[in-house]
Amino acid sequence: MADLKKTPLFSLYQEGGAKTIDFGGWDLPVQFTSIKEEHEAVRTKAGLFDVSHMGEVEVSGPDALAFVQKITTNDASKLDVGQAQYSIMCYPDGGTVDDLLVYKLARDRYLLVINAANIEKDVDWMKQHIEGDMQLHNISDDTAQLALQGPLAEQVLQTLTDEDLSAIKSFRFRADVKIAGVQALVSRSGYTGEDGFELYTKPENAQTLWRKILEAGKGEVLPCGLGARDTLRFEARLPLYGQELSASISPIEAGVGFAVKTDKTVPFIGQDALKKQKEQGAPRKLVGVEMIGRGIPRTHYPVYAGEELIGEITTGTQSPTLKKNVGLALIKREFSEPGTQLHVEIRGKRIEAVIVPLPFYKRSK
Questions:
Q1: Disulfide: which of 101, 261, 311, 358 matches 75 by Cβ 3.0-4.6 Å?
Q2: Nearest residue to 297 via CA among 313, 320, 321
């Protein structure tokens, strides 16, 4: 594990008893206590995640918006300063380069937040499409990111700042907030299905923020690892690149077509292919599967309708919230109606399952 990249918080993992794993070339905590305990904390109280491995790219200059519009599927022209949006970068055939968040920092300045395992690939892709008067800077190494998620996130974080956090609405941010005396960009989105905040700061400030938030939330906030992050996002049907999205899976197939604006005035890469899928229907669709027979559906397990192989599981587990064995499956569209009986092949046996509505979990407002 010596050659793996480490975040600025790595030295604190041991204090929390973290078990670390290789995640896309990073040495990251899969859990501190247990995945189920951390999952439950985020659903009922709050959890703190180190997501400093994520990538950040700053795009600036008079042609910054035109560039963002060309490489992403959503309509960044709709953003005001202080707003963020979920978007996708696609290949010409509609396959996914990556999913990302786009923050409008100023009139001609944007922050793109990309997936850790894709940083090098994404930055190379962006550089291939630079046009006009603009600059692109990969600031990933100069940025740390913490995520505080859960119903008590605002209450806990508010004790550390004079900023009115209730004024930061969903997919909004403030670029210059002091949290426990530390300068941070504070946004409100998340990857768990719960309310919460992301804190972007300089790497040298990350440990202070981590400690201060855990102190402020003593008894209410647990440090959380990648395991709970995965089960939480899965229950809320939030895609993971490499599973629900990939070079061979389009955002339409993955069920995030809301982030694909095929009618925006600036043409974007993949627009023709995605417009065709939106109008005619994609050949495959991401659905929810609940096991009727015994067994847990796992990534890449085959899915059958009768004797026909119709797709595979992209993510599956025993849902900590629902206490059911469920999965996301990418299957042929004609078999995608809720209530359809299917079989998932688990260790050589075909086990009965049924298609159920998504998401598996949705928080009450």
A1: 261
A2: 313
